[in-house]
Write a structure and sequence with these properties.
4 strands, two-stranded parallel ribbon
C-alpha cells in the first residue's frame, strides 16, 4: 500500500538496520510490517493538534503492549514530522527510551538523498 520513493527508502533502511520495526499509520496507529491493510485515505496532516496527540497516545499504548517496558530501548523514527512531533517522540522519551530522528529538519529531497546514501 505504501509505494512512495521515500517510504521505500525508509523501508530498505530499517529492514537492514533495525532489530524490529513497525509502520506508523494515520488510520491504524502502530502496525506490524506483515499486516495487510485495505487502502485508505487518511493522513495526520489533515488532523488537528488534539487528534494528533490522541493518535500519539494510542501509538505509545500499542508500543507498550507490543514491547513491554521501554526503559533502555533505543528507537529510531523514520517518518514525517507530523508522525513524531506531536507527542510520540516526547512520550517515548518519558517512558525511558532513547529516540533518534535521523532525518529531522530535512526537506523531501534531502530525505530521499539520505536514504539513497545509506543503501
Amino acid at each position: 500500500m505504501y509505494t512512495s520513493a521515500l517510504f521505500r527508502g525508509r523501508l530498505r533502511f530499517v529492514e537492514r538496520t533495525c532489530d524490529r520495526w513497525f509502520v506508523l499509520s494515520a488510520k491504524h496507529g502502530l502496525v506490524a510490517p506483515e499486516t495487510i491493510l485495505e487502502p485508505y485515505d487518511q493522513t495526520l496532516k489533515r488532523m488537528g493538534l488534539a487528534d494528533r496527540r490522541r493518535w500519539s497516545d494510542a501509538v505509545l499504548t500499542a508500543l507498550n503492549r507490543e514491547l513491554g517496558p521501554l526503559t533502555g530501548t533505543t528507537f529510531e523514527i523514520h517518518a514525517g514530522n507530523e508522525y513524531w512531533a506531536f507527542g510520540l517522540e516526547q512520550g517515548i522519551r518519558k517512558l525511558g527510551a532513547l529516540v533518534s530522528v535521523p532525518t529531522a529538519g530535512l526537506g523531501l529531497g534531502q530525505q530521499l538523498a539520505y536514504y539513497r546514501a545509506h543503501q
